[in-house]
Sequence to fold (143 residues):
Amino acid sequence: MTPETRAKKCADVMFANDAASMGLGMSIKTINPGQAVLRMQVRPDMLNGHGICHGGFIFTLADSAFAFACNTYNQVTVAQQNQITYLTPGKLGEMLTATAAEVSKSGRSGTYDVTVTGEDGRTVALFRGLSRSVKGQHFPEEG
Fold:
């Protein structure tokens, strides 16, 4: 199995059980080893009292991209720590894109950066996630 095939199969297995990401209308655009691109359209029920996308929804999009990126090696991996910096607001009806990339991976620990952008290419938020691999695989694999 190629690394790309493994990454896609892991994403397919995870997404099929990810009620949170599906419920928010997220879609996976790209999966590669250590990388993921997810998209989500800002709906009226995602707006805060200022009429902009609630930061929790932006965080959830970034966190989902992080989760799919760090789970591309068929090793169950969870978040250990996350942080986010909001730079510009998400707007009603706008398609937000979260691009996650592995910065480092050593043993059971990984570091991933996620950039959330708006349709016009502006940076909406910067997210850093630290991951920890735990016991288990997403699917049985020989070897």
User: Anything to note?
Assistant: The chain has three helices and six strands. The chain has a mean pLDDT of 97. Residues 55-70 form the longest helix (16 residues). The beta strands are 27-32, 35-41, 77-86, 95-106, 109-117, 123-133.
